[in-house]
Amino acid sequence: MNRNIYTVFSSRFPADRGATFIETAEGRRFSYADLDAQSASLAGFLRGLGTKPGDRVAVQVEKSPQALFLYLACLRAGLIYVPLNPAYRQAEIGYFLEDAAPAVVVCMPALHDMVGAAADARNIARVYTLDSAGGGTLTELAAATPPDFDTAALAADAIAVILYTSGTTGSPKGAMLSHANLAANALALHQAWGFRPDDVLLHALPIFHIHGLFVACHCVLLNGGKMIFLPKFDAAEVVRRLPQATVFMGVPTYYTRLLAEPAFGREACRNMRLFTCGSAPLLTQTFEEFRQRTGHEILERYGMTETGMNTSNPLAGPRRPGTVGPPLPGVSVRIVGEHGAELPVGEVGALEVKGANVFSGYWRKPAKTAAEFTADGWFKTGDLARRDADGYVAIVGRAKDLIISGGLNIYPKEIEGYLDNLDGVLESAVIGLAHTDFGEAVTAIVVRAPGRDDLTENLILSKLKERIANYKVPKRVFFTNELPRNAMGKVQKNLLRERCASGQTP
Q1: Residue 168 has pLDDT above 70, yes or no
Q2: What are 226-263's pLDDT values in tens digits?
Q3: Which domain holds residue 470?
Q4: DSSP state of 152
Q5: Which pairing describes strands 247-250 and 200-203: parallel, antiparallel, or unpaired?
Q6: Which of 102, 104, 113 is nearest to 47 (CA)?
Q7: 418, part of any domain
């Protein structure tokens, strides 16, 4: 039996392949026939380069229908798709190309020189371009390939994607998700959220991470439905488009910005049946204000790169603000204490998950993989949680040193590494501070080297912007003579957060 997830999708395509799959902001329409033909041509082109199942394809492009077709082409060809944030800079790209060792790299034209240089340095010869309008060397060359590719027959454990997630050590690690992982999670979400034949998804998320690419697109593909494909989130445009849709998926920042739009309310949401939220905690205040304004309750769920979605508030039943709901079908969760024993209802402990959705491990990091699983096969999420008597899970904190800003994961250790390498910086600490729009704002506390009073906040920020993606760049830089430490020498970031939040000098 072929376990390629594309065969699962294609079995759900509408009988009329001329039905619309994607409608762009400009009004261009791509049918399911277009999806099948273009992904076939791209798959044939990639395999015609001499690639074989299991080879990696690294992709750093802007959102477009063709970018999504490229992802589906990799699935069909048995190639491992490696999406990269378009905001990544040269040093970051170099690391990913070194680690993933892709056979093919696809980037947007504006980054060709930078990405090409990084690829050349690692003997990667095949570098193609793809722009936001679907043009570029990739689609130009693939157009000559007949659209009749036979989807590769794969085992359930064949790796479909590698998603890079930063770690507390500062070195991003690639989470390997199989075709079976993706299929199990997609089917569970499609069922749990009650997708209907007439559903239309308003898609405003990026497609370089799990939320926009898998959660959103996979549900539509399984439904054989339509999505309105916006290039990015724009609150005014979302409000304008909502009457044409029935489902919207977002991060907390999206919802706070929608609530700031005067035109947003019950009339704009008249045809909507479902709003979901994830990637960061949703404030109870936002939940309540949204309900009062629209008559809708946001459905909050919980997932992570390594597992896809784990829990979800119910479609039918109480959606409890401050919780992420019970486990999804096929997913088990437990909350354990310091020594691994499961805790009683209501007690806070470490959240662990198990199920067909859970990844197989980190790319080329067996020791790290082993450390993240218990002896009996549960994955350690690194989150602290409690569970009530009805099975609803509430995430109460993060055991791992993670900042979530605008729905994107940022690990302080990575930023600290760049800061500490700047001329004039003696040492640094990076923390997250509460922010009404982003959820958390990346904030740096820096100790200058002696005699380096010339090192200013603006200078540090400008240097960082040359080296790392903009979303990782701190919103503020504070200076201090020394970082507070405990008896073991560990920086006390809790004190730094308290001081900064209260307006004190760190």
Answers
A1: no
A2: 999 999 999 999 999 999 999 999 998 899 999 999 99
A3: 403-501
A4: P
A5: parallel
A6: 104
A7: yes
Is 67 among the domain residues?
no
Question: CA–CA separation, 479 vs 276, rounded Å?
Answer: 39
Helix-then-strand count for the chain, H and E: 16, 24
What is the SS3 assignment for 476?
strand
Q: What is the pTM of this model?
A: 0.87
Rounded CA separation 110/97 (Å): 18
Domain count for the chain: 1
DSSP annotation string for 32-85: HHHHHHHHHHHHHHHHHTT--TT-EEEEE----HHHHHHHHHHHHHTPEEEE--
Give the CATH number for residue 410. Answer: 3.30.300.30
Q: Is residue 291 part of a domain?
A: no
- DSSP track, 256-283: HHHHT-TT-STTTTTT--EEEE-SSPPP
Distance CA 241, CA 269 (A): 10
Per-residue pLDDT averaged across 86-107, rounded? 95
- Which helix (H) or strand (E) segment is 425 a member of? strand 425-435
Indicate the SS3 state at residue 86. coil
Look-up of token digits 């380069």: 49
On whether the CB atoms of residues 9 and 221 are closer than 8 A, the answer is yes
Looking at the DSSP bridge assignments, the partners of residue 15 are none
Over residues 20-43, the pLDDT tens digits come to: 999 999 999 999 999 999 999 999
pLDDT confidence of residue 420: 85
CA-based Rg of the chain, rounded to a whole angstrom?
23
Measured CA to CA in angstroms, residue 308 lies from 9, 12, 80, 133, 333 at distances of 17, 21, 17, 29, 14
Any idea which residue has 């050590």 for tokens?
A: 169
Let me know if residue 426 belongs to a domain.
Answer: yes
Bridge partners for 60 per DSSP? 107
